[in-house]
Amino acid sequence: MFNLDNKVVIVTGSGSGIGRSIALGLAQAGADLVITELPERLETANETARQIRSAGRRALVVELDVTDVGGIGKMIEQACDYFGRIDVLVNNAGVIIRKKAVEVTEEEWDRVMDVNLKGVFFCCQAAGKVMIRQGSGKIINIASINGMIGSAERSSYTASKAGVINLTRTLAAEWAEFGINVNAIGPTYLLTPLTESLFAQETFKEDYLRRQPIQRIGKPEDLLGTVIYLASSASDLVTGHTVMVDGGWTAV
Ligand SMILES: NC(=O)c1ccc[n+]([C@@H]2O[C@H](COP(=O)([O-])OP(=O)(O)OC[C@H]3O[C@@H](n4cnc5c(N)ncnc54)[C@H](O)[C@@H]3O)[C@@H](O)[C@H]2O)c1
């Protein structure tokens, strides 16, 4: 049920942090990977690919800025030319700008929306066209607890992640007839390059442990069970759902 042998999975932004961890976890579960990363960070993608190959799976590295819609189409083409199909898309690439709402510039707002929401939509669209032809596919969008709850100094980020959660529901409704499941994951704060500076602040760490019933700092590996479940046939009747992997943060 949880077997991913020879499944072809694309993970965007998989040169570091959560993306790399997801790619490696899926490879260990039997999948072959398309690793995408920003052109200036290709070295990190090559390192992820090296680790996947040493786990005995295949890996293709493709450079991609998810804000470049033409580039997304080319990445999907390359993936199909190389592997012949796309079974799973994990939309992981994301950015955050932490700033008081009154100070956010138009450029900053657009940047976060372009990467976190527009990028996710057009990756879904391009992979979705292939999956519709195949009559099967799984899409997993990495949202956040910040898509479910508000959070000071994260206006563009929370709006983008809430958008991802409702986009997930809409695509699930639209593509169910083609055998495509579209789900999301809402992680709590996990220790990655994106949050290193936050966890370095004692007050943030204390507040985190106070708000989260499971009182430990989350790691990217905490998402792997959910990712494998949503990528596998074990979740065939699950769609439009956001699984909160948040230590109970949004439950209380
Ligand atoms: N770390 C957390 O606490 C946390 C919590 C909830 C959700 N998330 C989400 O998880 C995802 C991964 O975050 P992370 O913590 O691993 O961050 P990270 O900064 O380590 O990784 C983000 C990756 O996305 C890539 N990326 C950034 N902009 C891109 C673009 N325009 N095109 C293509 N790739 C791009 C980066 O190069 C990087 O590899 C993000 O969507 C983030 O919002 C993170």
UniProtKB/TrEMBL annotation:
Annotated ranges, domain Ketoreductase: 7-188
Record-level Gene Ontology MF annotations: oxidoreductase activity, acting on the CH-OH group of donors, NAD or NADP as acceptor
PANTHER family assigned: SHORT-CHAIN DEHYDROGENASES/REDUCTASES FAMILY MEMBER
SUPFAM superfamilies attached to this UniProt entry: NAD(P)-binding Rossmann-fold domains (SSF51735)
UniProt protein name: 3-oxoacyl-ACP reductase
Source superkingdom: Bacteria
InterPro entries recorded: KR_dom, NAD(P)-bd_dom_sf, Sc_DH/Rdtase_CS, SDR_fam
UniProt family annotation: Belongs to the short-chain dehydrogenases/reductases (SDR) family.
UniProt KW keywords: Oxidoreductase
Gene3D superfamilies in the cross-refs: NAD(P)-binding Rossmann-like Domain
A GO biological-process term: carbohydrate metabolic process
Stored Pfam families: adh_short_C2 (PF13561)
Cross-referenced PROSITE patterns: ADH_SHORT
Keyword flag Oxidoreductase: yes
